[in-house]
Amino acid sequence: MKSLKQFVPVFCLGLLLSACSSQSNKPQFVIEPPSEAQIATSVKEQVSLTLNAFTPVAGQALPNNTVLTAYKARGYEPVWIKDKTIDMSIYKLVDILQDSHTHGLNPIHYHTDIIKNYLELKQPSSQQLAEMDVIATIALTSYAHDLSNGRYEPLLIDPNWQLDAPNNNWKDLLYLDSAASMVNSLPLLAPRSPQYQVLQKWLVYYQDLAAKEKDILVEAGVPLSLGDEGPRVAQLRARLVQLGDIRFSTRKVQEDRFDSRLKKALQNFQRRHHLIADGAAGSKTIEMLNVSLTTRAKQIAYNLERWRWLPSELEANRIWVDLTNYTVDMHLNGELTSMKVVIGKAERKTPVFKGLMTYMVTNPTWRVPHRIARENLLPKLQSDPNYLIKHGYKLYSSWGIGAKELDSTKIDWKNINPEKLAYRFEQEPDEGNALGQFKFMFPNKNEIYLHDTPAKHLFRERNRAFSSGCVRLEDPHEFAKQITKGSKSYNEMLNKLKNNSNSVVSLPSYIPVYLVYFTVVPNANGMPEFRNDVYQRDDLMEEAMGYVAFQANESI
């Protein structure tokens, strides 16, 4: 696409008139431009009208009053016209907006074609100049907001996605002293995480590749492995070259022979797609290989939007529960410690949110949440009235402080309506307690926390979505040690454990906890790692972000 700077309109008044006056051998034409007062008056008249006409679409949460307030603050002087001349920064703005797809955003939301149409007018009126100025400012503001905070409201996409950290830094851009400063500040609003920046580069790679090349597909058939030969091996090699797992080399190879280099490249591909890295191209691996470049680009775009819902800068000390990787990463005191976790099963998804870990409990009593009591415990009691006694539970008449302890064997469980179940169930601390020896608390409305578990065998599984929503830790002792290291809380915790004491231990400092969900992340080598969409959240992103323009004959 040609740069807009090649379409500078004739009415760029001061520039053009000065250029004409320097060419004495040509006829001179004097065009009487609208006065600055006329333009400012027209801007004032157009602001409200144009704001209403260009209301944000597709779930964007941008208040129109932001633009109106900014124009009021500048006395309705135009942003993009100064000294009777269109500021050249508007062309750079349009170029940036047209490249918004490189961040996974849609240029159609930023009115680029409309702005270009105004810029191509030969002799615009003051009203047209005002319209152009307001629309360009709306586009600038929308893009600044979307790049900084994300375009979409996460809760409108997924009720279980409760992590949204909007900031107002993007509004400051409207009060800079020049249009050039505003435009030049736009790129600084993107998330600063290195992961975001690496993913953005891969998005551009996939977008460009999809535009230039067709997908190289591997035909279905028997598994391919070391030593095999034939056209399907050549397809496999070509696909791995296309996807970047095999770097271009001038060294001659037998394209249709499965050699050790091809096996190593395939293992790298399998690892970054969460497959068993056996170096053989079976049906699942071929299915992953044949996912289109366009689909992969979309997946990356979804995850860039998820990054924009996070704070622009993350705390140095934080706990990062990576749900799709089934791990928890402790970023504490400049060190990183990781361990496996078990997360909520598909029907009881662990929500995405941020909390603040303030204390832990040693040898905890488990108060069974209402939902688990209704859906898990009640059916077991209806089959076996002695279930509570066998598994160390106590039963109380209600959730009140003075609730009376009851004999669970004397209750007719089969005639209890699950919706009216009001008893409190508590499992006493012991080896079989569902919470094990620890629970780590960051108070939240979801009643989610990190805890120990007696079901250690689950950590041997590759996909570990087995819990009722809370997060189970592979090594809670190590976790407790890391979050209390070098403080008296650590020794206090050890003493409580020795005494089998059910006690609360306050943390020496509170730690932010992020429960996050990404289906594409950069791996240690900077390659995109495509993960299983455990909770089918990419489908919801596709529904929200898969905007396609209407054709004229499809409009209402």
Automatic annotation (TrEMBL):
The keyword Cell wall biogenesis/degradation applies. Residues 1-24 form the signal peptide. Pfam families: PG_binding_1, Scaffold, YkuD. Keywords: Cell shape, Cell wall biogenesis/degradation, Peptidoglycan synthesis, Signal, Transferase. Pathway: Cell wall biogenesis; peptidoglycan biosynthesis. Residues 317-492 form the L,D-TPase catalytic domain. The active site is at 451 (proton donor/acceptor), 470 (nucleophile). Gene3D superfamilies: L,D-transpeptidase catalytic domain-like, PGBD-like superfamily/PGBD. The keyword Cell wall biogenesis/degradation applies. It comes from the Bacteria. GO terms for molecular function: carboxypeptidase activity; transferase activity. One of its GO terms (biological process) is cell wall organization. Belongs to the YkuD family. This is Murein L,D-transpeptidase YcbB/YkuD. It comes from Marinomonas aquiplantarum.
